[in-house]
């Protein structure tokens, strides 16, 4: 059994175990842990010269932002982002003082909290709408990812974004949308999702577009840093960000759609 398959089995089993047995709080804690690791990987790309204290503190705050999604007040995650940005800026000013790249470092760190922590945190809100809602978004994202890979490998001729991810093709992207919509319809028809099957069809299309943008966003981060993978914590898969990149935008998109259709938590 390859390392890739072994990693997929144990990671998938652990994730599904927490999803079905851990309740909303347990799932929130797991998502926060993923965000902490993901933020550390992001800092490796955006700020490779960050010292251990900066790296640890900013990664830990990513987990705090995600835990804010467990609060009944929906404003808490945003307030934590603002507070974190203010404290990080003050720490630089009162500590080593401003330097030529200070603004870029501050913006990059806050951008990481927004892209990684705030994005993943919406999964916690989705979980509050029911386990089936999380299953829906994961099934849609994975179906689109698998279709894009196999169709793109076999039939891909027209590059989708060659300057960002040369292997992605228009054919793979189109197959991804179709597969996601079909799986979204099927999951909504079989499971008690917060919406019906036909609503699930178009919602899946929206999530797929967001997921593909999230994938490309992480590709931009990696290409800017000149690396192939965001990390190596998952043998055969790379880093955590390499596995959850599509969810960074798909989770907020689904939370927004649930709120629009009146099915949100």
Can you tell me about this structure?
The model has no long low-confidence stretch (mean pLDDT 87). A hairpin with a 3-residue loop joins β1 and β2 (165-169). The protein has one domain. The protein starts with a helix and ends in a 5-residue tail after the last helix. The protein has helices spanning 3-21, 23-46, 52-67, 76-94, 102-128, 131-155, 170-190, 197-225, 240-244, 247-260, and strands at residues 159-161, 165-169. The protein has a two-stranded antiparallel ribbon with strand order 1-2. It is mainly α.
Cα radius of gyration in angstroms: 19 Å
How many structural units, i.e. domains?
A: 1
Count of helices? 10
Could you give the order of strands across the largest sheet? Answer: 1-2
Q: Based on CA inertia axes, which overall geometry fits?
A: globular
What percent of residues are in strands? Answer: under 5%
**Overall pLDDT, averaged?**
87
The arrangement of helices and strands along the chain is HHHHHHEEHHHH
Write the topology of this structure.
Elements (H helix, E strand, L loop, with lengths): L2 H19 L1 H24 L5 H16 L8 H19 L7 H27 L2 H25 L3 E3 L3 E5 H21 L6 H29 L14 H5 L2 H14 L5
Antiparallel strand pairs: 1-2
Helix pairs in contact: 1-2, 2-3, 2-5, 3-4, 3-5, 4-5, 5-6, 5-10, 6-7, 6-8, 7-8, 8-10
């Amino acid at each position: 059994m390859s390392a890739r398959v072994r990693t997929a089995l144990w990671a998938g089993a652990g994730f599904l175990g927490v999803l079905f047995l851990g309740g909303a709080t347990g799932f929130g804690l797991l998502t926060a842990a993923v965000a902490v690791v993901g933020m550390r990987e992001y800092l490796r790309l955006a700020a490779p010269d960050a010292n251990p204290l900066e790296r640890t503190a900013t990664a830990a705050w990513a987990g705090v932002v995600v835990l804010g999604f467990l609060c009944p007040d929906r404003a808490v995650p945003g307030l934590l982002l603002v507070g974190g940005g203010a404290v990080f800026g003050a720490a630089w000013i009162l500590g080593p003082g401003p330097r030529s790249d200070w603004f870029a470092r501050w913006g990059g760190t806050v951008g990481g909290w927004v892209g990684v922590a705030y994005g993943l945190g919406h999964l916690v809100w989705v979980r509050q709408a029911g386990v089936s809602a999380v299953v829906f978004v994961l099934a849609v994202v994975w179906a689109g990812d698998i279709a894009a890979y196999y169709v793109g490998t076999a039939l891909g001729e027209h590059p989708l974004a060659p300057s960002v991810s040369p292997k992605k093709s228009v054919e793979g992207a189109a197959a991804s949308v179709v597969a996601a919509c079909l799986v979204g319809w099927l999951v909504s028809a079989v499971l008690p999702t917060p919406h019906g099957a036909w609503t699930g069809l178009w919602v899946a299309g929206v999530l797929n577009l967001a997921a593909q943008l999230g994938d490309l966003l992480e590709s931009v981060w990696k290409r800017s840093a000149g690396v192939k993978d965001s990390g190596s914590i998952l043998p055969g898969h790379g880093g955590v960000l390499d596995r959850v990149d599509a969810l960074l935008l798909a989770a907020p998109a689904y939370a927004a759609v649930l709120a629009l259709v009146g099915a949100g938590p």
